Amino acid sequence: MKENIKKTEEITKLKKRSQLVTRLMQSKFFVIGLIVCALIVILSVIAPFIVVHDSKLPSLANSLQPPQYFSKGWSGNILGADNLGRDVLTRLLIGSRYSFIISVSTVFCAIVFGVFLGLMSGYYGGWLDNLIMRFADIQLSIPQLLLAIAIVSVLGPSIPNLIIVLTITTWPQIARLIRSSVLVVREMEFISASKVLGANDLWIMFSQILPNVMTPLLILGSQQIGFIILVEAALSFLGLGVQPPTPSWGVMIADGRDYISTAPWVVLAPGIALMITVLAFNFLGDGLRDALDPKMKT
Amino acid sequence: MRKYIIKRILLCFLVLFGVSVISFGILHLTPGDPARLLLPDGSSQQEINELREKLGLNRPVQVQYLIYMRGAIKGDLGNSLYFKKPNLDLIKERIPATLILTSAAVFGSLLFSLPLGIIAGVKQGTFIDLFAMLFALLGQAMSPVWLGILMIFIFSVKLRILPSFGYGSIQALIMPAVTLGLPLAALVTRLARAGTIDVLSEDYILAIRAKGIGEKKIITRYVLKNVLIPITTVVGLQFAVFMGGAVVTENIFSWPGIGKLAISAIYGRDFPLVQAIMLVVATFFVSINLLVDIVYTLLDPRLKFN
What we know:
Chain A is mainly α. Chain A has eleven helices and no strands. Chain B has two domains: 72 residues, no CATH class; 213 residues, Orthogonal Bundle (MetI-like fold), CATH 1.10.3720.
């Protein structure tokens, strides 16, 4: 008898999972987004191994070389060179690593903070809820970019500082989202049942409530990655993010600004890369949302 | 309802308090002695000490904060290190420029995207719908960093029909306003389209149609009103964000607004100015949010009873 119940449970789980995968695969957005994102991520991971030129070393003889595409095979400047003679494609690939490291770390940290605080806030309510939400409100009342700029100007622009700053500006949204989901799940009967059975609060929060609030979190998380990449690019563009000579798409766009009429490839390459990457992540997020929670569809 | 408004206003004060602490803290967290920064290099230690005494820098931090806030309420936000003028004056000079840019961006986006979204919702599946969806998707990925530069490339460099910087003429306003407003237009198109589809599928629309009321009236009266509710919130929020965050756009187009002032203040380590700007921008932000909240409760009769 017990084995039958277990078997039915397992089959139901498998069915649910394959249903989910089917729904995901049905969404064209998701598939396209997934493929492009995967491509970009793979490229950025293997970048140091496949680049032929140095991403930081200037080579003034090569300055402002127009794109040679494949005329010289793989060893020429496929997408041209910037004003210091550095290969654009190389910098593009290496720069993507920084964009990803910063945005993924930020979203990860923001999720850790946001989920913890959101759970506490939603589950316990009362003064703790008030306190945490007031902090969140104060955060949200300063425009994100301005706050990031102000803090970076104090702490100095370095990658860990960037991650700290961006986490600070991102956690409130996540906390709010988790909190509102928790408020709904908290009232459900299985939670009361667990309480009656003597489960302690932490266990309830992490093993029972958390899995049920994952869906909106996943959607928000994937949207945020794209958004943070843009914010990092903006900060780097303003000179407050990744510092030259380290390549980052924002820095490349800022550097290339002066040469836009004579050497547009210096600016166009990182700009297009930025656009495609953010689009891909948006598609991914939209597809996830369509598959996981069609009610939120717009 | 009134209780809600009072609560919200109190919340605003709390938030502004928090913001003032943060912006005050920034000046005092910076490494280096503020007095030393103010005086020219090579001043004697005694001169530095005298200035410290005069500025009250030797008093405990809490007292300094209170002195600062007392001044702030009266309108004295300190003086800029670089410009050697009162901060508030500097900010007041630049606000009109940012206001013009923000208004143009918001107004322009709404003018374009609201009709587009509604029409797309009404004529689902047609070319316009497809166009609107594409526009919404692409628009959201175009950050000012990229879009601004792209527009300069196309319209200033290649086509030579629009100036890439300048202030005062309509031509100079077009590109910055579009750069700033495009992501908003994309978002509003999406919301308008979704809202339209939702409303048109409601039962009461069927009832109204059965009564014989024309399509046009349905759209302008019922669809528009319902669609405007979430859009007002979004637009209000974005307006506030623009006021403080048009930093990148102003930088790209050399638009003389608050954003550009903030950046030069930060580059120049002019911390009193940075502090003042943060406080002013946050105040704007909070006030506009409050306004939006109140308008939102007025617009949606369903909320009146909560």
